[in-house]
Design goal:
Layout lengths: L1 H14 L19 E7 L6 H4 L9 H7 L1 E7 L7 H10 L3 H4 L5 E3 L6 E3 L8 E2 L18 H8 L6 E4 L3 H8 L5 E6 L4 E5 L8 H8 L2 H6 L55 H16 L9 E7 L1 H9 L4 H26 L3 E6 L8 H6 L5 E2 L2 H16 L5 E5 L2 E4 L1 H6 L4 H12 L5 E6 L12 H8 L8 E5 L3 E2 L13 H4 E2 L1 E5 L5 E8 L3 H9 L18
Parallel strand pairs: 1-9, 1-10, 2-19, 6-7, 6-9, 11-16
Antiparallel strand pairs: 2-17, 2-18, 3-4, 5-8, 7-8, 10-18, 12-13, 13-15, 14-15
Helix pairs in contact: 4-7, 8-10, 10-12, 11-12
The structure holds zinc ion.
Zinc ion binds next to loops.
């Protein structure tokens, strides 16, 4: 009996905290999930969570809302509200003024060279014999939360980016990523660049060989449910919906993509099957890299891009958009079940957000007496040049207009002995007389501009002097440049900037908040959750109420 008791004491001593003192290795590790998955649904307006809520199943969007924490009033705080800008902002917790991604394209204001956001002439395509892989994140000036995870674990965490779009794969995965993959329209394969690797890993080659895109489009795009159940949408055939060029005469179901996929592989982007393909490839990436299976937290970034292509072509009120979200909901349900089975319920954290929203189609708005209009940049610039010629005897003062920014030729203005500030004032005043222009502003004197918040701050956040012109145009609500078909985004207005922001899983409380948050808050929140440093340009705050 006595011996037994001593044995028990020795046992307790050895396995209690005492045994950790002295030279023994600490047994407690930083508490982190096995995997983080960031999902950016391209062009997802916040209201889509509720617009189609009654038709969603329980395992996709509804699971996020019913198990996770939703920030109901999350906004983009920069201009323009474009894809590359949004993705860079989500993952850096920063703003274009600092992270440098001021558009999908921009003109370098010092050299005059035009840049695509992720182009990189120093790298080569991996996985195809073309130039679609000459891409890298080197134009991104700040670190991402994915970079910070790699740094925090001395590069033992794995980070992989997946999207149909190069920019939406590369920017989220960051500079120190293990890999980023995107879809190549020429081959119908997922490709990468020599920035990350010399050749595609075996699992990716195998995925490409299986030719999943052809299988996914084989049955054409029909509605998931009977057409008359799509009561949240306009009739199938309306004049403001776009068509598949050279293949369709009207924008109606079924969209017979199987007939033209072989010659137009990129068309899978504009169907819900592009999202299915992306999530299938994401699963293959998880498996191929054994993500969420090791001792260190891994991070997979996913962009579902088809919502954006479908939205651009058909507009937010179309059956096509409704069907795309109903199908994405099913794909997400399937993906979350996959994570439950393979990483384990409670072992992973997911967040879902959007890079931007979208306006309603202009003709749809007009048909319902709602305010909207065609903003026409070409005649506007023509008028501006005529004004400049009359006033200063030259129209060369304006170099270009891009992303609603107007750049001036400062050297020429100096050479002509003109007052730079006065020239800008005159141009601003002229622009404000033009149709569809609500405000114009000289960003270098933004403090003196009578522009209300939050627009003023969004302008400042979006202005990087090396990558954008010093003047900006803000359109009237509902006004944008359009050929009358489909829609676009880019403005400050809530339809473009009110985004879903939902967290779910490890470390996340269930709940909802109607406080105002911003896209820049996502990376700091994930950093706090993971106990890692915030990205190098982060300006956002932690959504504390979402964290356990
Ligand atoms: Zn986008």
């Amino acid at each position: 009996m006595k011996q037994k008791l001593i044995g028990v004491f020795v046992f307790i001593f050895l396995f209690s905290g005492f045994s950790n003192s002295g030279s023994a290795q600490p047994t407690h590790q930083v508490d982190r999930p096995k995997l983080v998955v960031g999902i950016v649904v391209d062009q997802m307006r916040w209201d889509y969570l509720y617009r189609y809520y009654d038709r969603y199943g329980n395992g996709g969007f509804k699971r996020l809302l019913n198990e996770g924490f939703t920030c109901e009033n999350a906004f983009i705080s920069h201009l323009p509200s474009y894809t590359a800008v949004g993705h860079a902002t989500v993952y850096t917790g920063s703003v274009p003024a600092i992270h440098g991604i001021t558009g999908n394209d921009w003109k370098d204001q010092v050299t005059g060279r035009k840049w695509y956001c992720v182009e990189d002439t120093t790298v080569e395509t991996v996985g195809a014999d073309n130039k679609n892989g000459k891409m890298s994140p080197r134009n991104l000036l700040a670190t991402t939360v994915t970079d910070e995870l790699r740094l925090a674990t001395n590069f033992r965490s794995k980070v992989v980016g997946v999207s149909l779009k190069d920019r939406a794969s590369i920017l989220p995965a960051g500079h120190a990523a293990n890999a980023a993959f995107w879809f190549d329209d020429k081959t119908g394969h997922f490709i990468s660049s020599t920035y990350y690797m010399k050749e595609l890993p075996e699992w990716a080659q195998k995925f490409n060989k299986a030719n999943r895109p052809a299988a996914l489009v084989a049955g054409d795009w029909n509605t998931l449910y009977p057409m008359d159940t799509y009561t949240q949408s306009t009739a199938d055939n309306v004049e403001w919906e776009g068509i598949v060029k050279d293949e369709e005469e009207s924008p109606v179901f079924p969209h017979r993509i199987s007939k033209y996929y072989d010659n137009k592989k990129g068309e899978i982007r504009s169907t819900p099957f592009g999202n299915t393909l992306t999530l299938e490839f994401a699963k293959a990436a998880l498996e191929g890299n054994r993500m969420g299976q090791g001792a260190f937290t891994d991070f997979l970034t996913i962009n579902c891009a088809s919502t954006d292509y479908v939205g651009h072509r058909y507009g937010p009120n179309s059956i096509e958009v409704e069907d795309t979200y109903l199908r994405l909901d099913k794909d997400l349900e399937d993906f979350f079940y996959y994570l439950d089975r393979n990483v384990g319920i409670g072992n992973y954290t997911v967040f879902l957000t959007a890079d931007h929203g979208a306006a309603h189609s202009i003709k749809f708005m007009e048909a319902h007496n709602l305010p909207a209009g065609f903003f026409e940049p070409k005649p506007l610039m023509k008028n501006l040049k005529a004004f400049l010629k009359a006033k200063f005897r030259t129209d060369k003062i304006v170099k270009e207009d891009l992303n609603y920014h107007v750049a001036l030729d400062k050297e020429l203005i100096e050479k002509l002995n003109l007052d730079y500030d006065k020239v800008k004032r005159d141009i601003v005043q002229f622009l404000q007389t033009q149709p569809g222009v609500e405000f114009a502003a000289d960003i270098e004197n933004l403090g003196n501009s009578p522009i209300p918040e939050p627009i003023k701050t969004m302008i400042a956040n979006g202005y990087n002097p090396k990558r954008a012109g010093a003047l900006i145009i803000i359109q009237d609500p509902g006004w944008f440049s359009s050929n009358g078909k489909g829609t676009t985004h880019g403005s400050w207005n809530p339809h473009d900037t009110h985004i879903p922001m939902v967290f779910m899983g490890w470390g996340i409380k269930h709940g909802r908040s109607t406080d105002t948050y911003h896209m820049t808050d996502i990376a700091p929140t994930i950093s706090a959750l993971l106990h890692i440093q915030m990205p190098s340009g982060a300006v956002g705050r932690v959504v504390s109420e979402a964290l356990k």
